[in-house]
Predict the structure of TetR/AcrR family transcriptional regulator.
Amino acid sequence: MTRSGVQPTTARRSDLLDALADLFLAEGFMSFTLDQLTERLRCSKSTLYTLAPSKEQLSRTVIKHYFRRSAAAVEDKVSAVDGDVEVYLNSVAEELRPAQPAFYRDLDLFPPGREVYEQNVVYATQRVQELIAKGVAAGVYRPVDSEFVADLIANALARIGRGEVARATGIDDSRAFQLLSDTVMGGLRA
């Protein structure tokens, strides 16, 4: 541990956070006890406590880790094609594909997790707005108001994350993200 009280990032720590994120995405996180998590991950409680001092803080830490990991993967794909909006939206859909309804349900019921999700929606909105504006300026997309399109996307992302789209349409979250991408790209290219 450093003087600031922050645990240094290690391969083991990253592996544990990845494993927890994968478990949370597949099964949700609210119903797990620390004992169940230690059993599933084959580690001790003290190992989990190196990640966070409580189950609530552990859940928030894992959710933040998942969204950071996903954002980095999306940005890697986007930078490889010089900032394409379609690649960005499709990469977001791909990164969110493992998230099952239980994860979104728990995320909606867990204010610290919902806050992390909403912060990521704000970031994604800003990023999409930048990419659209760049594409419009380069003549790749038709002239649109990038702020307006980004705001529509933000609202759709928020509704998907709260489970509202799935409840209203029966469309799972991953498919909803893909349909959002298809719709936005159809409007930009029209």
Remarks:
- The longest helix spans residues 111-137.
- Residues 63-189 form a domain with the Tetracycline Repressor; domain 2 fold (CATH 1.10.357.10).
